Amino acid sequence: MTPTTEHRPQMSVEEFEELERRAPETVRLEFINGKVQVKAVTDGNHDQIVAWLQRLCMQHRPELWLYGDRGMKVEAYRRGRVRPDGVLAPFGFAKGHGDWSEAEGVLMVVEVTSHDSDTDRRDRVEKPGGYAAAGIPVYLLIDRDDCSVVVFNQPEGGRYRHQEKLPFGASVKLPDPVNVTLDTEPLKDLVD
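Given the sequence above, the corresponding structure tokens read:
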């Protein structure tokens, strides 16, 4: 007897959006590379890191806002849907966008790693490609697992041409168009 492979049709973006609308508020869903993924619920230190970054962005670039948990269309042909921990864009960016915003006007997206089984694949592998394909100039990954900050920039051809990884405590320069320097010393106190 020959083993059979079950063929499952890929979920459409429209089907995902309907599923996401019906999901309980305690569940955060994303659609990356044609697959539905559950994003872990954040903990207090995770939320504090996002608040720390939001305050710094407001101090250095008051015309911008770090939108938390904003639904974004990413990947080639806008076939992906993600909810970054932060989306840095001009204040008023999300007005009239509904649940999912296009990447146009976004200066930077931010992810803070969670302590779940697929954070490596999701935050370190799949999302950089999706954000680069969407043309987002800067992707900031705050990696709590190895106490580092990774800055991805120069998107081209669905990937970031440049990335720099620095330890918590370092001075981190966020490049154009963000132009903010972060003193990451406070992140050392937010590692669990």
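Helices lie at 13-22, 44-60, 119-133. Try to locate this feature in the token string yourself.
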